[in-house]
Design brief:
binds magnesium ion, alpha/beta, binds guanosine-5'-triphosphate, 4-stranded parallel β-sheet, 6-stranded mixed β-sheet, 406 residues, 40% helix
């Protein structure tokens, strides 16, 4: 049901709003991300529409004038998909689909769809399917009357594809079934985790596409799939890593994103257990991304939701090779100097300085500063290790560069 299909790029338009909380540049950044999500899902963005308003219209998200523009454009250019940069309420989705007469998706839809495409193992598939069913349930009413479900493509993969006639009861039964299935797998996984003994567990966490898997591969010499698309990783990989004789476990897991659908956080609960049960977090950040500070906030918010925000955490600022400050013209008196103009050195003196030792600056791709990285991780893992195995203390001296060749 969740087959990955060859798809030609589907033409889509994006629709976002500019509000008091979300100024023009924020709105642009969000739409950039939405475009990246669309591309990852197999779509091509032909045009973006934005509207300034105090808050989204409760009936149709944007106003009727703007909606006319969108409708005209869609008709003239044979666009099949309109994607809204927020979660639409079931009523909004219905109203808009009636007006536009094309496939209407929101951010949540898109993320769920990418997860469905990317799920490799039956466990990940089951988790995604559960999230999709939960998203679908409140939206069933009248959903298929004006649109044939057979249109396929983005947002249409997954449950429901063969179940146009489904009523809520069937979906509810399915949810119960999927939950039971997940519970069984959870038990097995939890036993597996228990079998790993008392080894120190380190989890890579971070926004999607920041380089977690790349770092995992460099450090553990493994071959986890990494690529320049969102949500390359859905299944958790655990590897034994040894730094200077000190063994520990490193986990690479699913990336986070702004407004990660709650259904997904819920159903990926056990995947996220790897994070919850970790002794040390490596919070990887793509410092070359203009929005990296907001990414950190989103990740922290999700860590908080899964009760993991008080763990020892090393912030790993990755992609320093790609960092570029916006050029600043000192003579242009109209231009105000902002964070976007900071050099990496300046960044280091900001709040990053306050976390001191717990901030690292690396390039996983170019293998820059990896020695620092190994040393910091070694020190931190060692601290935890010797509380668990006090008699092993003498085995692991302070990390020194000379002794360490690998
Ligand atoms: N320039 C640069 N690119 C990097 C660096 N590290 C990773 N990348 C690239 O960033 C992209 C994403 O890398 P991944 O390792 O797949 O990122 P991830 O955090 O595992 O992503 P998800 O699994 O999607 O959450 C890939 O194209 C990598 O080659 C780096 O240090 N510098
Ligand atoms: Mg990954």
């Amino acid at each position: 049901m969740l087959e990955k299909k060859d798809i030609t790029l589907e033409k889509a338009v994006l629709i976002g709003v500019i509000t008091k909380e979300q100024d023009e540049s924020k709105s642009k950044e969000y739409l950039d991300e939405l475009e990246f999500l669309t591309y990852t899902a197999g779509g091509e963005v032909v045009k973006r529409f934005t509207q300034k308003m105090d808050m989204p219209n409760p009936k149709t998200f944007i106003g009727s004038g703007k909606m006319n523009d969108v409708q005209e454009f869609i008709n003239e250019n044979e666009i099949g998909t309109a994607i809204f940069d927020d979660e639409l309420s079931p009523a909004q989705e219905r109203n808009i689909s009636k007006i536009l007469n094309c496939k209407v998706l929101d951010r949540t839809n898109l993320i769920l769809d990418i997860f469905a495409q990317r799920a490799q193992t039956s466990y990940a598939r089951t988790q995604v399917e559960l999230a999709q069913c939960e998203y679908l349930l409140p939206r069933l009413k009248g959903m298929w009357t004006h649109l044939e479900r057979q249109k396929g493509g983005i947002g249409m993969r997954g449950p429901g594809e063969t179940e146009i006639e489904t009523d809520r009861r069937i979906v509810r039964d399915k949810i119960a079934l999927l939950k039971a299935k997940i519970k069984t797998i959870d038990k097995q996984m939890s036993v597996q985790r228990g079998n790993r003994g008392q080894m120190v567990r380190v989890a890579l966490v971070g926004y999607t596409n920041v380089g977690k898997s790349t770092l995992m591969n460099v450090v553990s010499k493994s071959e986890v799939f990494a690529e320049n698309k969102l949500f390359a990783t859905l299944d958790t990989t655990v590897r034994k890593v040894v730094i200077q004789n000190l063994p520990f476990l490193m986990t690479d897991t699913v990336g986070f994103i702004r407004k990660l659908p709650t259904q997904l956080v819920e159903s990926f609960k056990s995947t996220l257990d790897e994070v919850r049960e970790a002794d040390l977090l490596l919070h990887v950040v793509d410092i070359s991304h203009p929005n990296f500070e907001e990414h950190i906030e989103s990740v922290n918010k999700i860590l908080d939701e899964i009760h993991s925000s008080d763990k020892p955490t090393i912030m790993v600022f990755n992609k320093i090779d790609a960092y570029e400050a916006e050029p600043f013209d000192e003579d242009d008196l109209m231009e105000e100097r902002t964070k976007a103009h900071y050099s990496l050195e300046e960044w280091r003196t900001t709040w990053m300085n306050k976390i001191g030792d717990y901030a690292l600056f690396i390039s996983a791709l170019n293998k820059e500063n990896l020695e620092d990285f190994r040393k910091r991780v070694y020190d931190e893992v060692r601290k935890i290790h010797i509380t668990r195995f006090p008699y092993n203390h003498f085995l692991y001296p302070d990390y020194s560069k000379e002794d360490f060749e690998s």
